[in-house]
Amino acid sequence: MADVLIVGRPNVGKSTLFNRLVKRRTSIVHDMPGVTRDVVEGVCSWQGRSFTVADTGGVLEKGDQMSERVKRQVQRALGSAKAIILLVDGREGLTAGDQFLAKLLYAYKDRVFLVVNKVESQKLEERAYEFYSLGFERVFFISAQHGRGIGELLDSLMEYMPNTEERSLEGIRIAFVGRPNVGKSSLVNALLKEERVIVSPIPGTTRDAIEVPFSFENMDFILVDTAGIRRRGRVDYGLEFFSVGRSIKAIELSHISCLVLDISEGVTDQDKRIGGLVERRHKGCILVGNKVDLVKAGRKELEAYIRRELHFLDYAPLVLTSALKGQGLEELLKACKLVWQDYNLQHKTSFINRALEKVIKERQPPSYRNKEIKVYYAFQKDTGPPTFVVFTNEPKLWRKDYLRFFQRRLRERLGIKYSPIKLILEGREGK
Questions:
Q1: Percent of the chain at pLDDT above 90?
Q2: Which of 222, 258, 339, 381 has the greatest number of C-beta atoms within 10 Å?
Q3: What is the model's pLDDT at position 163?
Q4: What is the pLDDT of residue 199?
Q5: Domains 4-158 and 349-426 share a fold
Q6: What integer is the mean pLDDT of 149-164?
């Protein structure tokens, strides 16, 4: 769990402070209370050292079922934190909700930093002295939005942090993407064997992209749970708009995307659209047929159906899972390892060109207006994904259907079974 935990009522500025500390817009900031629901982690670096910090959902004394889940999640995290920031709203003043949280945290008072936010001036600071009545020794007045008082707060926090050099979350980034309510959060929790992200039958429960470090068979992963991606026409501008944007960004930043399908509902057009997002970005992919316990069809029948519907992701391993029953989880992680190995394959130029000759011999590029298309040679430019530069006389005249054939056959000839490849066509003059 994180070194520093930020807790407070809804809408006191927890996500704004978190983003200020990690120096990037990780948590969604919105005027509507209750935007953050899960624990969102990041790394804060200060004066050559670093520590992990976690943003949490707003805690209410009494609330609906979702609020109670947020409260339980925060309570579980308190015991392992080295420091706890109790964030309050200096403009609004002391509230009953602040007093409830103070009582909740008093058992940890030797680690609590009472931070009064939205204090942009000396006058506001004088008005905020009433917060001393909560009984905590370490009190700080800040403006998370403008950066006022952040340095002083960080200096004090560093006294409670281990003496570690600057670091960042490291590992193979696995993004769980898909439509709302297909079981992404449930799969992440099942892999972690704890309720790290909140699960609810209400679509849209996950709003931020949640990053969680994880290890399996001596390999480090970062599991990224994302908000469900709905059809563009059904996404209202505002909170959901930004949540979906974060999910697409998570695909772009991932090494591997697990496309989670609710197999009890079948493969939908939106599943195919999301698969297209992954494919166009040349990301490693795993097809995850979740909720298999709700389907009566046999394994072979299900696999053939998914392959047929998502044929353009033919390189992606297919795993059938049940997050509820714990089925297929180890198989999913082993598939991640297979994809990662192929995603980083490096080949010698001589081997690439022998494979190239075999593909051309199998099927020549079709001519265009009696103009013959020639292929000269190729080399591997990069990995992650394997990226190949192919020199040809007419890069712009390659037909899309032949390009797909060429890409598929070259991947097969090079023995890249579980990863996409990226082709760059160049003229002899580097055009």
A1: 40
A2: 258
A3: 65
A4: 39
A5: no
A6: 84
Q: Is 218 exposed, middle or buried (0-12, 13-18, 19+ CB in 10 A)?
A: exposed
Give the whole-angstrom CA distance, residue 250 versus residue 99: 37
Count how many residues are written for the chain.
Answer: 431
Residue ranges covered by each domain of the chain: 4-158, 172-343, 349-426
pLDDT at 235 over 90: no
pLDDT tens digit sequence for 98-130: 998 888 888 888 999 999 999 988 888 887 888
Residue 29 vs residue 75, higher pLDDT: 75
User: Percent of the chain having pLDDT more than 70?
Assistant: 81
pLDDT band at 244 (very low <50, low <70, confident <90, very high): low
CATH top class, domain 4-158? alpha beta
Q: Is the per-residue pLDDT at 277 higher than 60?
A: yes
319/331 Cα distance (integer angstroms) = 7
CA distance 226 to 107: 34
CATH number belonging to domain 172-343 = 3.40.50.300
Asked if residue 421 lies in contact with residue 319, where contact means CB atoms within 8 angstroms, the answer is: no
- Reference 65, options 189, 235, 167, 199; nearest CA is 199
Q: Can you read off the two tokens belonging to residue 151? A: 């340095």
Higher pLDDT, 226 or 109: 109
**Mode of pairing for the β-strands spanning 172-177 and 83-89:** unpaired
Task: Kindly state which CATH superfamily the domain 349-426 is placed in.
Answer: K homology (KH) domain (3.30.300.20)
CA 214 from chain centre, in angstroms, equals 13
Token pair, residue 10, equals 């809804």
- Give which of 206, 180, 182 is closest to 36, Cα–Cα: 206
Q: Is the dihedral of CA 43, 66, 183, 195 positive or negative?
A: positive
